[in-house]
Amino acid sequence: MDGRGYxxxxxxxxxxxxxxxxxPHDVDQGAAVFALGDTFNGRCIDMILPQxxxxxxxxxxxxxxxxxxxxxxxxxxxxxxxMGLLLPNGHTRVAFYxxxxxxxxxxxxxxxxxxxxxxxxxxxxxxxEEEDWLDEGEDPRT
Length: 142
Hints:
Number of helices: 2
Largest sheet: 6 strands, antiparallel
Oligomer: single chain
Radius of gyration: 16 Å
């Protein structure tokens, strides 16, 4: 994806990937968040993108946009509904549909989560710094 983040005012203009399943080339080019290779019968999930969601990741609630939505079957025949997420800071992640709650773009909880992503913290000198808690050692493409 383009690496640009979004705010509560401009989220609807986020770049999306739809109409076909992504390939590794699409991911390398930054057009898609993920490409699944060890699955079968991949298909796009019919949903309007971008879709504001609250992502429940372990104990955290994170504002995100679904910008890519695909369903694939595993070797065991299980259907995996995978979502490519764009975070307000421009980074991307992959999540299972079951870990997301679709919301309206005006949802007050979602809007407040966007604003809470970067919070000022005191550094060793007592000066405020921005802490980007989603960046620590994570690959921004997955």
